[in-house]
Design brief:
Helix content is 50%, strand content 3%. The protein has 443 residues and is mostly helical.
């Protein structure tokens, strides 16, 4: 019993109480009525013998603890009482000790039955059953998964990282090159073939980006405030009119994903080369995950504050998309939204997505895998401990399937991005960061 030092005292306290509330024994006659069937739990419980506060049904009648004990003792001793008065005493809480004969008579009149009294052997068996049940419950509780202090700390760090890198007000969207939506006639001429940028991700906010990052300094990139607005506005927007705006949005989102990744426990233990490899190959997937926060099931749009920054499928086609990407993307967003993930689960899923050891050009796959395994364990434990049913049913498996869906979306995005970037009139509207991150993708 040393397994349960904290619970043993509670066992002993509860055993006598449970024994006192004696219910019908297993061998009792099945013809006895169920006294609880017509009991209204909203009505105050009054002892049918003396009118004191009742504690429940005892020996087939609603009684207080005192009358329960009196009836049990009287039946076990086979006591014979004689009324010193006229044999019709009115039993109350205050005088119930004055006439045992009339009290016992009242017990029988309200339906108390000696057949419901347990024998000494039955009491012992019941005591053993109660002890066994409590020990099993204590063992079950001790074996129940619990979030360790370390796991709670990981979750806390990831939550803080996400909140620092995701602006729910979308206030920085005004710093992008402005969204220009074509009318319906121009939209029909926009030739949404296989052109693509990452603008569907109604994610965090961005400045415009006109300064090219230094080679090998991807992890230290900062936002450029030296945007040439006049040059941006002078571009030809007759085709893919939303491309400049959404390119800025994605460029900023990449930097936010980078900032989030740097705060993942264990990420900085990797070499700079592996950090860059992971970020380049997972960036678009994490942007898609993050954009689910702004996705609305009501109108299937990414809503980022004002109507100016409300993005629908038609808006995204004006940045070079076609439906081979958009249809599965919207389906993915709907499915992920319906999982009703906690914020803790959402940030863990993003971290697991980034720390995937099978990404191209990753060298130390063993270290990446060990970090991902720790994050996966935290996620599974969190679901078991904190996500109530029925939402937690197969939730971990469903979340892992979403990562597989993202791989397919990533592949389609790569195809469409390459078609877009091959055309100078379109690639010149992208940002240096977008060109760097997605320019060297391997199909």
């Amino acid at each position: 019993m040393s397994q349960f030092p904290d619970s043993w005292g509670l066992f002993q306290q509860d055993i006598q109480h449970d024994l006192d509330i004696e219910m019908e024994p297993v061998a009792a006659c099945p013809s006895f009525p169920d006294p609880t069937s017509d009991f209204d739990r909203n009505v105050p419980r009054i002892c049918g013998v003396c009118g004191d506060k009742a504690t429940g049904f005892h020996f087939n009648a609603m009684t207080c603890e005192g009358c329960k004990g009196f009836f049990r003792r009287s039946m076990k001793r086979k006591a014979k009482f004689t009324c010193p008065f006229n044999g019709d005493c009115k039993i109350t809480k205050d005088n119930r000790r004055h006439c045992q004969a009339c009290r016992l008579k009242r017990c029988i009149n309200i339906g108390m039955m000696k057949e419901f009294i347990l024998t000494d052997e039955e009491v012992q068996r019941k005591r053993e059953m109660i002890m066994k049940r409590k020990e099993e419950e204590a063992l079950k509780e001790s074996l129940k998964p619990k979030l360790s202090e370390e796991q709670l700390r990981v979750i806390e760090i990831l939550l803080e990282a996400h909140r620092k890198t995701y602006d729910e007000t979308y206030s920085d969207f005004s710093q992008f090159r402005p969204p220009i939506r074509s009318d319906s006639s121009k939209r029909s001429m926009s030739r949404s073939s296989s052109f693509m940028t990452q603008g569907f991700s109604s994610d965090d906010s961005s400045d415009t980006f006109n300064s090219s990052p230094e080679p090998g300094m991807f992890l230290n990139l900062q936002l450029s405030d030296d945007s040439d607005d006049s040059a941006s506005m002078a571009m030809d927007f007759s085709h893919l009119s939303m491309l400049p705006h959404l390119a800025d949005l994605v460029s900023y989102s990449i930097q936010k994903v980078t900032g989030f990744a740097k705060m993942i426990p264990g990420f900085k233990d990797l070499t700079a080369e592996d950090q860059i490899a992971l970020l380049k190959s997972s960036a678009i997937e994490v942007i898609m995950l993050r954009s689910n926060q702004s996705f609305s099931l009501e109108d299937m749009s990414w809503t980022c504050g004002s109507n100016e920054f409300k993005y629908k499928v038609n808006d995204v086609t004006q940045a070079g998309h076609n439906m081979e990407l958009l249809e599965p993307l919207v389906k993915f967003q709907v499915g992920l939204k319906k999982l009703n993930l906690h914020e803790e689960e959402h940030v863990l899923l993003m971290a697991i997505c980034i720390l995937s050891p099978d990404r191209p050009f990753v060298q130390d796959t063993a270290l990446v895998e060990s970090i991902q395994d720790r994050l996966s364990e935290v996620l599974q434990t969190y679901i078991l401990c904190r996500h109530p049913p029925p939402g937690n049913r197969l939730l971990y498996a469903k979340m892992i399937q979403k990562l597989a869906d993202l791989r397919s979306l990533n592949e389609e995005h790569s195809k469409q991005y390459r078609c877009l970037s091959f055309l100078p009139e379109h690639s010149m509207q992208l940002t240096p960061l977008v060109l760097e991150v997605f320019g060297n993708e391997i199909s």
